[in-house]
Amino acid sequence: MSERSILLTNDDGIESVGFRALYDALSEFADVTAVAPKTDQSAVGRKMSSDAIVAEHELGYALEGTPADCTVAGLEALCPDVDMVVSGINKGANIGAYVLGRSGTVSAAVEAAFFDVPAIAVSMYIPNDGDVPWHELATDPRDYREATHAASYLAKHAVGAGVFKQCDYLNVNAPMRSTGTPADMEVTHPSEMYDMTAEFENGSVRLHDRIWERMRSGDIPDPDGTDRRAVIDGKVSVSPLTAPHTTQHHEALDALAETYIE
């Protein structure tokens, strides 16, 4: 059996600590080609460019573009014969249904689905229960140990187990654990909890996502089985998802369509 090949991308940028940690972990059993943004492209969703300058990098290629650009560029031009796309490790969790369309990490995996290439998006939840802001934590590759362990396990076994016969991509969120035994893994669905606020003052609107501070305080009503509940409980959350928006028979809309020209 030939060595499997993986296109690795992310949205934090090719020089990020989590990206290098995952590159090294996957390279232990696969031929990994990096096709990742040159700079931080967090929260750009599936934004697409018409042109993206490519520079060779010691790990593969760095693009002046978005994560979705990287997936398309990689699968169409730079490394078209890969077996899988892996995106991450994102510094910070990508959990909840409302986040899926915003996340560049997740969007890179979604883009792969339209090429019929299995994909895994990998993010790490960083609890912020101390004095140091969360974005100043996770500066050592060892901090990403739980996420790299989960990603490697799934990259090795998910295809052979038939996982992608029932989903297009996996959204993985692991807690930050640099020591101790690996966490349990739980199959989840995205939480539907939403707590965005907006305040208008002096000609400006301030948008605020209250979920993260609620997570720090433990004020989260998410039930068992959701991605957010799993990571708060210290587990690795794996959500099997489909990329195309699903459609269902809708009798009320059928009735409206029938009377459209009346």
TrEMBL record:
Keywords: Cytoplasm, Hydrolase, Metal-binding, Nucleotide-binding. It is found in: Cytoplasm. A divalent metal cation binds at residues 11-12, 42, 90. Its EC number is 3.1.3.5. It catalyses: a ribonucleoside 5'-phosphate + H2O = a ribonucleoside + phosphate. It holds the Pfam family SurE. Residues 6-191 form the Survival protein SurE-like phosphatase/nucleotidase domain. Its cofactor is a divalent metal cation. GO terms for cellular component: cytoplasm. It is an enzyme of class 3 (hydrolase). GO terms for molecular function: 5'-nucleotidase activity; metal ion binding; nucleotide binding. Its main location: cytoplasm. It comes from the Archaea. Binds 1 divalent metal cation per subunit. InterPro entries: SurE, SurE-like_Pase/nucleotidase, SurE-like_sf. Belongs to the SurE nucleotidase family. Nucleotidase that shows phosphatase activity on nucleoside 5'-monophosphates. NCBIfam families: surE. This is 5'-nucleotidase SurE. It comes from Haloferax elongans ATCC BAA-1513.
